[in-house]
Amino acid sequence: MRPISVATAGTGRRFGLRAAAIEYSTWLLLLALVAVGTWVTPLFLTIGNFNDILQQSSIVGVMAIGQFLVILTGGIDLGVGSMLALSAIVGALGVSVGPIAGIAGSLAVCGAIGAATGIVVALGRMPPFIVTFGVLAIARGVALTITSGKPVNLAPSWFLDIGTGLWPQTIWAGVILIAFLILAKLPTGRHIYATGGNIDAARVSGIDTTAILVLVYTLSALCAAIGGLIFTARSTVALPTYGAGYELQTIAACVLGGTDLFGGTGKLSGVVLGVIILTMLSNILDLTGVNPFWNFIAVGAALWISVSFRSRLTASGR
């Protein structure tokens, strides 16, 4: 057997470090943010503040899980922000009949739109960007038409509780658990990854790619609906303008978590960390009294840094 030279061993160690850096880049970014937050303000490293971060993460977090499932198939869902608004309006109107009616109505309407989106993408062979951009406009237009652009106030009920206390975090944890079971414990998870890796090969191998696409877009719409219900319960009023820009936040969370936008690659844990990183950025800026409009700049900078870091490490390993 040929002995391993010092140069070869050194290369192996460098490759191992490079692979570890790529694998745990999201964790490194999170730890860097924790260090910065601890350094700039003593209010950051407290249990109360971390609970606030988790609560603030919950809405985008739930929606990012649905976006993640879509991206794994090589698609994109630009309609989640508008679906949040539609969910808020339908839920608020339904709560006047009863909380269960509001929740069921919201999930039913958004789920149906999500299923229709998946059908159009799969059977119409249309680009997901175009289809979901249409959903963005349609859902927002329906929400504005129903309300004539006016707010809908919520009647007092137990429905308001889901926006307070530990309920948002608990709901987010439940959605994460369901996504984990789908991706890691059921054949459906392997089919989702396979569809994103190569849809033609997946179809030839016997996977019903149409059913997979309908499923992920339906789940994304349902996640947006849940986010809208939490948002409405927290604010106690529904507005048809809710959710603007949330589609970009969910995509950013997936990218920060290492998800490949071309599909087939990504980890659920990375998306959760990506959401927390986005929220932590805003939290640090808020605690230090920085103009909130800097949040957009901070998110963009974090995306650049994260993607550039991974790209350089990947390129240097070739």
TrEMBL record:
Transmembrane segments: 24-47, 68-94, 100-122, 129-146, 166-184, 211-231, 268-285, 291-309
Location(s) in or outside the cell: Cell membrane
Main location: membrane
Pfam family, one: BPD_transp_2
Protein name: Ribose transport system permease protein
Membrane topology qualifier: Multi-pass membrane protein
PANTHER family in the cross-refs: ABC TRANSPORTER PERMEASE PROTEIN YPHD-RELATED, ABC TRANSPORTER PERMEASE PROTEIN YPHD-RELATED-RELATED
Keywords: Cell inner membrane, Cell membrane, Membrane, Transmembrane, Transmembrane helix, Transport
InterPro entries the UniProt entry points to: ABC_transp_permease
Organism of derivation: Labrys monachus
